[in-house]
Amino acid sequence: MNVYIDTSAFLAVLNHDDDHHAEAKAIWCYLLDTGASLGTNSYVLVETVAVLQRRLGLDAVRTFFGAIYPLLEIVWVDDALMTLAIPLLLTANRTNLSMVDCTSFLVMQRLQVKKVFAFDRHFAEQGLAVLEAK
């Protein structure tokens, strides 16, 4: 995996009404055209499906699992990873930072992934290279 994908990017790609949809579509096409190795973690999957289902319905979930999921390397969050994420979340002491974000940071650190496709400012705050449309 050389590009990590966050929930915010999946939502922007699939939701035509999202403020970042045009940029997300351009980035997504670029990633596919260049054959980037794409990945995420299981918490992001759960979060993405829950938000897609609530905001856009099951057709969006079907599209996600039919067209996007097969292209992803998934890191499954286990007890050890979650145990590391809890103190990260609590020490940050920020109500707008999520457990999903913390597991993402740890996965990226563990796999030495520096590029992220996201529209969540927390990734840039971690010093990660957030992809932008070209």
Ordered list of secondary-structure elements with their pairings:
Elements: E1 3-5, H1 7-14, H2 21-34, E2 38-41, H3 42-55, H4 58-68, E3 72-75, H5 79-92, H6 99-111, E4 115-117, H7 121-125, E5 129-130
Parallel strand pairs: 1-2, 1-4, 2-3, 4-5
Helix pairs in contact: 1-2, 1-3, 3-4, 5-6
Describe the 3D structure.
The chain is α/β, with parallel strands linked by helices. It has one domain: Rossmann fold. It is built from seven helices and five strands; from the N terminus they run E-H-H-E-H-H-E-H-H-E-H-E. A five-stranded parallel β-sheet has the order 3-2-1-4-5. It starts with a strand and ends with a strand.
Helix content: 55-70%
Spatial sequence of strands, sheet with the most strands? 3-2-1-4-5
Number of helices: 7
Distance between the termini: 21 Å
Structural class: alpha/beta
Features:
single chain; 134 residues; Rossmann fold; five-stranded parallel β-sheet; 12% strand
Task: Put the structure in a nutshell.
With 134 residues, the chain is of the alpha/beta class. The chain is 59% helix and 12% strand. It has helices spanning 7-14, 21-34, 42-55, 58-68, 79-92, 99-111, 121-125; strands at residues 3-5, 38-41, 72-75, 115-117, 129-130.
